[in-house]
Amino acid sequence: MAEHALSAVPTHSRWNAELAPRLTIDAGDTVHFECQDSSGAQVGPTTTVREFEAIDRGLIHALTGPVAIAGAMPGDVLQVDVLEVQHKGWGWSSVIPGLGFLKERFAESFFFNWELEESVTRSLAPAVVPLRPFCGIMGVAPAEHGEFRTRPPGVFGGNMDVRELATGATLYLPVQQVGALFSCGDAHAAQGDGEVCINGIECPVDVSLRFTLHKQQVLAGPVVESAGGEVVGPSWLVVESATDALTAAKKATDRMVDLLIATWGFEPVHAYLLCSVAMKLQMSQVVNEPMITVAAAIQKSVLPVRTLYGGV
After folding, report:
1. Model confidence over 63-83: pLDDT tens digits?
2. What's the confidence (pLDDT) of residue 233?
3. Residues 6 or more apart in contact with residue 231 via CB below 8 angstroms
4. Exposure string (b/e) for 235-247, b if CB count within 10 Å is 16 or more?
5. Rounded CA gap, 309 and 263, in Å?
6. Cα atoms found within 13 Å of the Cα of residue 228, Cβ hemisphere only
7. 298 vs 226: CA distance, rounded Å
8. Cα gap 187→204, rounded to integer Å
9. Does an H or E element contain 257, and which?
């Protein structure tokens, strides 16, 4: 089980199964990724709003990868263990005209620089914001052939902006292409559910990920095992994206019922009842138009200890 390092350059800002892998690894290996901020290093700690307005939007997301996992095939599940995500002391947030959840109210450009301490930022006084860095984008190449913008998430993962994907979390993704072709980036030092202004605290990071391959396992979309956070404990999360929030929420709930049946042996109606009394529905992001991402979460303390592939 080897360890590898992958520099941020060159990045890519499109999903495309034809992209040659920058690295090929074996299942069980760990990769230490260097990730630029989501602007593709066009923004720095002293950037002004006028400078931000002039950046090349075509470079947004600036992903590191792709990484091919030897032996990965469609129909397999890729397990991604988030070993560590470390920010580099600075970040930024913005308001972009025409984007964001309240775009009618906040219609003028705005840019804000954050100074980051190890675990908090005090830049927006008097608030003290806790930091839990994570990659807003972690995904494999989509099943469709061609070149696609990275903004909409999907079955393959991608721009989910699920803030529970911090250090200690595990992400499960259904493999769509030979080799899986995993990429990551768009890191946030902190983010609220919804990411309502269009950004979290965008920042460059170093992230260490370990990859495990589960052969020929059924998985309809992303699942997250979180390590817990400032509000809730470690949880199971089923992630769904759709153009309508209610559709995404219904699909996430449906898949949570399936997960409870398959992994813990619940009768379907009992799984449905458990969702009604113990599940949290949360909007992970509402700004990656046209897609909205909803996570259905149940705290691990509610259920017996299980691993998703392998039983107890």
Report:
1. 999 999 999 999 999 999 999
2. 87
3. none
4. bbbbbbbbeeeee
5. 8
6. 7
7. 10
8. 6
9. helix 245-264
